[in-house]
Amino acid sequence: MARRQGAVVVSLLAAVLLGACLPAPAAAGVHLSTLPKALDVTASAKPGQVLHSGVDKVTVTWSLNTTEPAGADAAYKSVQVKLCYAPVSQKDRGWRKSDDDLSKDKACQFKLTQQAYAAGARGSFEYTVARDIPTGSYYVRAYALDASGTQVAYGQTGPAAAFDVAGITGIHASIKVAAGVFSAFSVAALAFFFVVENRKKNK
């Protein structure tokens, strides 16, 4: 009997230790579909307008929707603004796909700013398009965050109001000129050696 009880205790201890070693299940992220669209978000860039990376600016503004009841933003502590790929720039690009689970979403990769939220006031931010923003179509989304940094509401300009960004290719005009010069030199050198070899053969 004592042996049987001892075996049971050992089995229970082994199960506890095994459970402690196993990774905890990943917590599900916040789902966009469950958030109220409580923020009114606008961007100065017009639909279809082309902004150039490292040069042009866009002003983003946000405020509580007038349709929201008084005090609806009591839990809002900060606002996080992101630049999101429009559907046309997500097509056939899995690394840019949107997902209702915000912990898995890949469409809104670029954080523009995060600021304290002022109840009843309109916030704004002037953003210079970063040099590392790729060419594509984008829209703006803003999240209201609570004290823990969790998304509790959102607003966006929407894919229908998407604007375009012309990214920097990394190839400057001087590099193109140098490449052209070297190409011409290579052709000339090849022709020169061809003539020299022919003369040697004729001699």
UniProtKB/TrEMBL annotation:
From what superkingdom does this record's organism come? Eukaryota
Span of the secretion signal?
Answer: 1-28
Q: Which UniProt keywords apply?
A: Cell membrane, Membrane, Nitrate assimilation, Signal, Transmembrane, Transmembrane helix
**Mind listing the GO biological process terms from this record?**
nitrate assimilation; response to nitrate
Record-level Gene Ontology MF annotations:
nitrate transmembrane transporter activity
Q: Which InterPro entries match?
A: Transptr_NO3_Nar2
Q: Which residues cross the membrane?
A: 177-196
Against Pfam families, the record matches this protein to: NAR2 (PF16974)
- Cellular-component GO terms for this entry: plasma membrane
Q: What is the annotated role of this protein in its UniProt record? A: Involved in nitrate transport.
Assigned protein family: Belongs to the NAR2 family.
Annotated protein name in UniProt: High-affinity nitrate transporter
